[in-house]
């Protein structure tokens, strides 16, 4: 059995990989832009296969060939976790008002937070077939909930996560027809201490903030309990349902 983690070099992806290696006998295939950023423990673990991958670039035949090497013809893909995400970097920051909206940043957010997930599932489709249960999980965010949005702002991040949620919902309809048994879900990891959350330390003081290892443990527990009946859910880190 194998688990694929996209965005393995991020705080949540890295901690999730360590959690799966500790709790299971599965191999882990990690996708990320800069594999050298991973902890030495992961880079040296024989059960870990790292593949350089850019969420902002459309997958090509080279990526499928790289995935085929560790997955082969017989390796069963049990979990796909999409943990890549973009909130801010040197060239973008969450918008506070409409005047801050930037077309290029909006498109980058959609590419990393939403489109990358759908295109990666497309590339992995041959390994999502089989008689065993497959779990496809996108790490989303509560701020991507349309009905829960009472504050506004953060246009690019909110809109791209809402798009990610719709991709999950669409896939939850199609994949069972082609890859049963399967469960496709969106996960809210909770607020996690990471480079993504670092600029918002003052606001975080009012919230419950988890260390990456705790977030990984929470998500692992949720995913481990997911069955076919959970297909199409938007699940909070504590296992409860979130509104779309």
Describe this entry's structure for a reader.
This protein is of the alpha/beta class. 39% of the residues lie in helices and 16% in strands. It contains 7 helices and 7 strands, in the order E-H-E-H-E-H-E-H-E-H-E-H-H-E. The chain has helices at residues 11-23, 40-44, 61-71, 103-124, 155-179, 201-204, 212-225; strands spanning 2-6, 27-32, 48-52, 77-82, 134-139, 182-188, 234-236. A 7-stranded parallel sheet has the order 3-2-1-4-5-6-7, with helices on both faces. Strand 4, helix 4 and strand 5 (134-139) form a beta-alpha-beta unit.
Number of domains: 1
The major β-sheet equals:
7 strands, parallel
| SS-based class | alpha/beta
What's the shape?
A: globular
Unreliably modeled segments: none
The CATH homologous superfamily corresponds to: NAD(P)-binding Rossmann-like Domain
CATH top-level class: Alpha Beta
Mean pLDDT: 91
Radius of gyration: 17 Å
Say how many strands there are. 7
Strand order of the largest sheet: 3-2-1-4-5-6-7
Give me the number of helical elements: 7
Strand content: 15-25%
Question: What is the CATH topology descriptor?
Answer: Rossmann fold
Distance between the termini: 31 Å
Q: What CATH architecture label applies?
A: 3-Layer(aba) Sandwich
């Amino acid at each position: 059995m194998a688990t694929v983690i996209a965005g393995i070099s991020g705080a949540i992806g890295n901690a999730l990989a360590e959690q799966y290696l500790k709790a299971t006998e599965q191999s882990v295939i990690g996708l990320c832009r800069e594999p050298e950023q991973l902890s030495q423990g992961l880079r040296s673990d024989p059960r870990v296969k790292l593949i350089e991958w850019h969420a902002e670039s459309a997958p090509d035949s080279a990526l499928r060939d790289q995935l085929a090497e560790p997955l082969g013809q017989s390796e069963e893909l049990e979990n796909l976790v999409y943990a890549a995400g973009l909130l801010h970097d040197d060239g973008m920051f969450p918008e506070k008002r409409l005047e801050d909206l930037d077309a290029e940043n909006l498109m980058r957010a959609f590419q990393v937070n939403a489109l990358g997930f759908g295109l990666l599932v497309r590339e992995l489709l041959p390994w999502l077939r089989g008689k065993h249960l497959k779990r496809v999980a996108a790490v989303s965010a509560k701020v991507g909930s349309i009905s829960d949005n009472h504050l506004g702002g953060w246009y690019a991040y909110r809109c791209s996560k809402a798009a990610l949620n719709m991709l999950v919902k669409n896939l939850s309809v199609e994949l069972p027809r082609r890859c049963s048994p399967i469960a496709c879900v969106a996960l809210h990891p909770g607020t996690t201490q990471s480079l993504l959350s670092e600029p918002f330390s003052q606001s975080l003081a009012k919230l419950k903030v988890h260390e990456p290892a705790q977030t990984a443990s929470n998500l692992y527990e949720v995913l481990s309990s997911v069955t076919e009946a959970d297909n199409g859910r938007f699940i909070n880190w504590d296992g409860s349902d979130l509104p779309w």
